[in-house]
Amino acid sequence: MNKNVVEIDNLSFKYLGQNESALRDVNLKIKQGEIVAIVGPTGAGKSSLLRTLNGLVPHEFPGSFEGNVIVCGLNTKEHTISELARHVGIVLENPSTQIFSPTIEEDVAFGPANLGLSFNEIVERVKFSLEACRLKGLESRSPHEISGGQQQALAIAGVLAMRPSVLALDEVLAMLDPVGKELVMSILTKIASEQKSTIILAESGADIESIAKFVRKIIVLNRGEVLKEGTPRQILSSQLLDEIGVGSPQVSELFLKLRKLDPNLPIPITVEEAIEYSKKLFMLTKKIKGMTRQPEMEQKIEKRNPAIMVRNLWHVYEGGVEALKGVSLNIYPGEMIAIIGQNGSGKTTLAYHLVGLLKPTNPDAKVIVDGIDVTKSKIGAITQRINYVFQNPDEKLFCEKVFDEISFGLKFRGRFDAEKENILKTLKLFGLEDYRDEYIAKLPRNLKRLLAIAAIAALGPKHMIIDEPTTGLDNKTSEKVLNILSKLNSQGHTVIVITHNMNIVAKYCKRVLVMKDGKIIIDGPTKDVFTEVGILKEAYITPPQIAQLSVSIFGRDGGMVFLSVEEALDCFARLMEG
Amino acid sequence: MPVWLEYNPKNTVIHRLHPITKIIFFGSLTVLAGFYWDLRYMAPLALIAVLLAYISKVPKSWFLPLGVILLGATPFNMIMSIVQTNPELFRVIPRDIAGEYLFQFQLPLLGSKIGLTIGGAFWGTAAIFRLAILVILVYTFISTTSISELIAGLSKIKVPMSLLYVFMVAYKLVPHLFRTVWAILSAQRLRGWEIGTKNPIKIFKRLAPVTYPIIFRTMAIIDEVNIASQIRAFGSTKTSFSIKILRFRAVDIIISVLSLSILAICLYYLFIFGYGLI
Lengths: 578, 278
Prior knowledge:
The structure holds 2 protein chains of 2 kinds. Chain A is α/β, with parallel strands linked by helices. Chain A contains 24 helices and 20 strands. Chain A folds into 3 domains: 4-251, P-loop containing nucleotide triphosphate hydrolases (Rossmann fold, 3-Layer(aba) Sandwich); 252-293 and 531-578, no CATH class; 308-530, P-loop containing nucleotide triphosphate hydrolases (Rossmann fold), CATH 3.40.50. In chain A, the strands form 4 sheets. Chain A has a 6-stranded mixed sheet with strand order 6-7-8-3-9-10, with helices on both faces. Chain A has a 6-stranded mixed sheet with strand order 16-17-18-13-19-20, sandwiched between helices. In chain A, strands 2-1-4-5 form a 4-stranded antiparallel sheet, with helices on one face. Chain A is globular and about 65 Å long. The N and C termini of chain A lie far apart (50 Å). Chain B is mainly alpha-helical. Chain B is built from 11 helices and 2 strands, in the order H-H-H-H-H-E-E-H-H-H-H-H-H. Chains A and B meet through helix 3, helix 4, helix 5 and helix 16 of A and helix 7, helix 8 and helix 10 of B.
């Protein structure tokens, strides 16, 4: 029987200067070789709990600490972070701050070198970690030349090379493409089984589908308290995750809702299980024959004059990396589009070009927005027409209070008085009217994210690009952000979302552009794109669970592709009833 | 593409040198540039510095900030040149020439006269020249020496970990900060922010939207780097080394010995006979 490597007894913790406790009376035991997910909404205390494992709390983050955290037999209160680093590896959410060295190979070697290992041992560990994290062949590249997702893989490789007994990962899947998520999870599973390492993942909901089939135990945390512990099937068979705003895998959600029709239905936690259960449920061949494709809810788009026109756009970074290779596209006014693709495929570089932050490196490229040639315009001249919300936009906020932040752009342009109404409307649209006089520093992360998007929306750009709007947010907040963007879209704004979250793409976007290696490889209606499983796989994209389920049941040419749980529920309910 | 003051992974002759050799070599040039005042001695040093930068493939974009640095240092340098009026300060330039005024003007309100002497002009020119040489040497050293090489090299010569930690944070912080500054500047420009004036007071006021997030992010980055380094067990042992095999080759020995010998000879002639002074 495996021994406990993590024992937490009556742990409570309150950060210095905070009124509320981050952790309350937490008791946990985690065994060697287990893969455990700590799941909870944004602000539940997941990161704080991980920080206690390697002593960051209370050594680096002081506060009132009660109880004991014993990791590999060491009481974290009594040992330094560096001592604990030999036993506990932790990968933080933001990979860029964890990368120290100028080349990928050297960065992976940084931790083992600090442990004083022999040269040969370091070389062997570096090789293993690079292979495991799909970074082989990039050894001499600069970490700054690779994508965010690859940086995350590098951060994991760096800790992996230290071979800790406990590997704690804080929302590490958030920035990875779908296949990347799958790969990292399979790597972690391999490490757990082969090296008997204990893996602890913190997850706020966006990647619950990716982790559900790999973890053995889910610990549900909310407001610093452990609400429930159990196997994924036990946890996902209850409504608990939905109730606290984390959300469930689409297939679990679908079958939970179908239980109203048949209370004995099993709850699948993977697509494969859902396919198996569905086939049994419907005696497939008989019942699906009569199903026909539902009429498309086409977005009414005027396709004569594109709002954004890109022709033969190339971008080669100094050093020779070709980020864009002859991209051409049309985007029409009022469209809601998703740009998806593997990490490093050129999505963000394309967005920078659309707003003029980068200029093409080929002279014949054209980037036209509302008839204006962006390549020859100053940024200030086009921000009214098209604007862009950066990844992690909350880091760019600077005003003291919410209202000042939203009104900054208009004040700066001398349009504050004329557009005060618009500011108030924006506050209302984003649900921030009750916070208008609040200090930004005191706002939780999800509200800061909304505020950052609102600050751009208040400027009234006709076309908006939002880069990874849901990274690090729980399901409830992600849905809120996308609902607001949909409202903006219904008001006539063109909305372009860059994301790795395929569920929100399926639910909210009518057209999808798939990028790979600096090129657009598919451009079409969302339903059509998500049936191109083979091409998507090449681009490291996995369709949403519900789309995979429908394609598996009805076939690629069957015409039935679900993009949301509601669509699937409607169809399945009809099948079950008749 | 490395940002300003970031290691530039290339395979040049300078990149391949052992970090200790680079410290000795660049350190010797830095010491000489620090002591020399005579432009006839500084010119070859400047030429060597530029040549090293060229061989090491220092990114051309780094030379724009060099111009800004030199321009920024000019007012202070001019004041310092003007106060070098005492001919006794000069050892090589004949004192009657060193003290001769090139121009003079009367200070408003105070009534006294100030001006630039020939000695002061030489001093000022040398000071600017020195600054340029030192910056180019720093550029070349940083762009050719990775942090892991530097730490490995320094830890071999028993430099305390606490000092290495300072190097490491600085090496990591500066480029990270530049990336952050770019992102913050771009984000604020998209919100309509621009300097759009030459009035220094207005410029100062308008810099607030970029200054606040930069300061907050800087503090956050320092914290994050500190935490990340501890997570990666930095300082848990007294030694650290690079995955690159850092062998002290014959070329390293030759360059190190030559550098130290030339430095010793130059300093001897400088202090004993005043070669290189003005």
